[in-house]
Amino acid sequence: MMTEAGLPVVAGLTAKVNPLVLSLMGGAALAHGATALWDLSLATDKREVTPLEQHIHSFLEVLPLTAAAVTTCLHWDQVRKAIKGGGRADDWKLLPKERPLPAGYLGAIAAGVGIRARRSGPSTG
Prior knowledge:
Number of helices: 5
Structural class: mainly alpha
Order of helices and strands: HHHHH
Low-confidence stretches: none
Largest sheet: none
Shape: globular
Distance between the termini: 12 Å
Radius of gyration: 17 Å
Mean pLDDT: 86
Helix content: over 70%
Number of strands: 0
């Protein structure tokens, strides 16, 4: 699930938002939701899943969809290109941002994610 959420985040931070990136975000959000549903169905057979845990998971499920929706709203011109099948070949290529984010900013995000992932360890589902 970290990969399903992480790939579109990295693409959104480093690549030009185009139909490819928007499609990646949408597909990843759907995959993340499907994985969460599958994970929960497995967990309920093995242990009690409390209402609080379900509520927390429902919040976490919505985050990738919300990020994709906000990005879609901010790049509506690219949505129109995606609906039309893309105007140019570059619309479906992973291209770097025209004004990239500073390396220090990206490094701080990567460090924060790495520290968080290391502390939480592998999922025990």
